[in-house]
Amino acid sequence: MMKKITKIALTAGVLVTLLYFAYPLKSFAQEPGNNCVTCHADLDETLALPADQRINDIHFTRGIMCVDCHGGDSQIDHQGDFEAAMDPQKGFVGAISRTEIPQFCDRCHGNANYMKSFNPNIHVDQYQRYKTSVHGQKLAEGDENVAVCTDCHAIHQMRAVNDPASQVYPLHVSDTCGKCHSDDARMQDYGIPTDQVELYKSSVHYEFLEERGDLSAPTCNDCHGNHGAAPPGVDNINLVCGVCHISNKDLFIRSPHFQAFQNMDMPACVTCHSNHEILYTGDFMLKPDDGVCWMCHDVDSEQGRTILAITSEIESLNQLGIKADSLISLAELKGMEVSEYKFELLNLTSKLHIARNLVHSFSLEAIREETRTGRELAETIIEGGNGALAEIGIRRTGLLLSLIFIFLVIIGLYLKIKAIPQNERYNES
Ligand code: HEC
Ligand code: HEC
Ligand code: HEC
Ligand code: HEC
Ligand code: HEC
Ligand code: HEC
Ligand code: HEC
Ligand code: HEC
Ligand code: HEC
Fold first, then answer.
1. What whole-number distance in Å separates Cα of residue 348 and Cα of residue 341?
2. What tens digit of pLDDT does each residue of 84-109 get?
3. Is the CB of 169 within 6 Å of ligand 4?
4. How many angstroms separate the CA atoms of 378 and 336, rounded?
5. Residue 286 CA to chain centroid, in angstroms?
6. Which residues 6+ apart lie within 8 Å of 12 measured at CB?
7. Which residues line ligand 2 (CB under 6 A)?
8. pLDDT tens digits, one per residue of 14-34
9. How far apart are the C-alpha atoms of 194 and 184, rounded to whole Å?
10. 154 C-beta closer than 6 A to ligand 3
């Protein structure tokens, strides 16, 4: 009985394996009534690729077939000659040249009625925007080195932009742009740096995006636009950065620097923070040695003295904060109840944060307002921390006194028992 079952199972296994190898992936690529796919799946590498890759392509999943892009006749018999299938008379277009691709995609993507029938939310202005980008302008001049739609979205495996495997998914954008912008040979004639990706990858933004998975941190297209790729001009950088850093932008625009920077043709945020290699900030940025203010201000000037005053306001609050924090940590370590002060410490941290944020108002008064209330808070916490530590001292003395008292009682008891005569002590047992 067992033998019979094993035999049947083995035969079935061999049959399945044979069948599998007799139809290697072909059945997978075949599509009834679509002979473009059936024939192309049998061709050699590049010609077969579109047939294999199409399952990853958003167009295919929406029912858009080879003929919808290339024209021709997909109903011609597989065995028949391919010239009939790919007949220019039937609207067939072969490989589309780079310079024609944007218009080619725009046939559908610029057609609002058509696109809305698939997806009511999709934009239909990619080509219009593309034409205004440096890429689009150079392409119009016949420069084929620039990015066209398929460089960023791939060919035959164009994925939805929110598909994590898409080349334009936030985590992959920098490498997609880097294919060209980090390529010295490709970029050599343009006289622009090729270090954007490298610098960006050492930035806080990249750290948040890539290492912490925070999709709210920007990658290339968040600052340059998806299709309008151009470096933001001096006038609108505050808008680019300000989309996310709203309070920094608002303070800066209301400060006297806003106009002053424009007059000097200096970009708003980038002058102090750079564009690609944006690093963690700190009070060091205000200091005369490596600070950012001193490229325009003299330490001896009136404004220089204001800057030094701003620096010392923030620094002294920071020092108080460190002191308050270590006192409360120590008291907590020693088992005291300090949750109330820990909460106040959070308030203090946020005051310090606001003061640093207010640097973008460049107003000593505004910063002083924040550091004054911050200092009061810090002093309350420090007082509380000292109180808690002093209480530990009081408790210790109390404990010592009670220990001495207990010890004395034991001694007293011992002496008392000793004083009772021997025979009286044991007469009960
Ligand atoms: C009977 C087989 C066969 C069928 C059916 C077929 N093709 Fe082809 N196709 C080929 C071969 C072989 C080539 C390469 C020869 C050439 O470049 O002319 C090719 C080349 C192409 C090219 C590249 C042309 C170029 O200019 O480089 C495209 C695009 C293409 N096919 C699309 C299609 C589409 C769309 C259909 C369906 C309407 C289709 N094919 C049907 C065999 C076929
Ligand atoms: C969304 C539109 C679209 C669809 C759908 C599409 N193609 Fe293409 N195809 C293109 C574009 C654009 C190019 C030119 C890309 C380039 O060479 O930069 C191209 C190029 C090709 C080439 C030439 C490749 C080469 O390397 O020379 C072949 C062959 C081809 N397509 C076959 C197919 C087949 C077969 C299908 C169906 C399975 C298909 N395409 C579906 C847009 C499409
Ligand atoms: C320099 C790279 C680049 C080029 C060139 C490019 N795109 Fe995009 N495209 C993107 C990025 C990045 C996104 C947005 C991804 C996101 O939203 O996360 C995008 C989004 C899209 C979308 C999604 C719909 C939307 O919200 O806009 C479509 C459709 C699209 N592109 C089509 C095109 C077409 C058509 C062309 C050519 C005219 C083109 N793209 C050229 C990078 C590019
Ligand atoms: C025959 C019409 C047609 C052509 C030609 C065409 N597309 Fe599409 N494309 C569509 C449709 C329809 C969708 C699906 C929209 C949806 O449902 O979200 C789509 C979706 C996309 C998406 C995904 C958008 C998203 O929602 O994330 C991208 C990217 C895209 N197309 C790029 C291109 C590029 C690049 C080209 C040119 C090489 C091109 N398309 C040519 C019709 C077309
Ligand atoms: C296929 C190659 C290629 C890809 C991919 C590409 N670019 Fe470009 N890009 C170029 C070339 C070439 C130029 C022209 C340089 C010039 O004229 O200064 C350019 C120009 C630019 C410029 C204007 C620079 C200037 O001179 O002012 C910006 C900004 C830009 N690209 C951003 C991007 C971003 C962002 C991405 C990715 C979303 C990207 N590019 C993807 C090739 C590419
Ligand atoms: C936080 C915003 C931001 C991000 C992210 C960003 N850029 Fe930029 N980029 C800028 C600004 C602003 C400029 C203009 C510089 C100036 O005016 O000093 C610029 C300039 C450029 C230029 C022109 C040449 C140059 O180096 O000045 C290119 C090309 C470029 N960026 C490509 C990229 C690429 C590729 C990425 C992704 C790796 C990227 N950028 C990420 C803001 C950004
Ligand atoms: C798409 C949103 C977005 C854009 C656009 C953006 N940032 Fe950021 N930025 C973030 C996020 C998220 C962080 C990390 C979290 C944080 O510190 O707020 C960050 C961090 C920073 C930091 C570090 C702050 C610190 O904690 O020390 C600076 C400085 C900065 N960005 C400046 C800029 C400048 C300058 C620009 C424009 C050239 C810009 N950002 C554009 C979202 C953005
Ligand atoms: C004149 C130089 C200067 C300009 C211009 C400037 N910053 Fe700052 N920024 C600083 C300094 C200095 C600090 C650090 C303050 C500290 O920690 O004591 C800082 C800190 C920051 C921080 C971290 C602290 C916080 O507010 O969260 C962010 C984010 C930031 N800047 C964004 C921006 C943005 C966005 C712009 C443009 C609207 C901008 N900065 C313009 C000098 C500047
Ligand atoms: C790119 C040059 C530049 C940089 C960098 C710069 N400033 Fe200024 N600053 C100016 C100019 C120009 C004025 C005069 C503006 C006016 O009064 O119209 C000014 C004015 C001031 C004033 C006087 C404001 C008033 O109300 O009169 C203060 C305070 C000041 N800056 C602080 C700072 C601080 C703090 C930094 C660094 C975080 C800084 N500046 C970085 C150019 C600069």
1. 10
2. 888 888 889 888 999 999 999 999 99
3. no
4. 19
5. 27
6. none
7. 36-37, 40, 46-47, 50-51, 54, 59, 64, 66, 68-70, 95-96, 101, 104, 150, 155-156
8. 554 544 444 434 334 556 678
9. 6
10. no
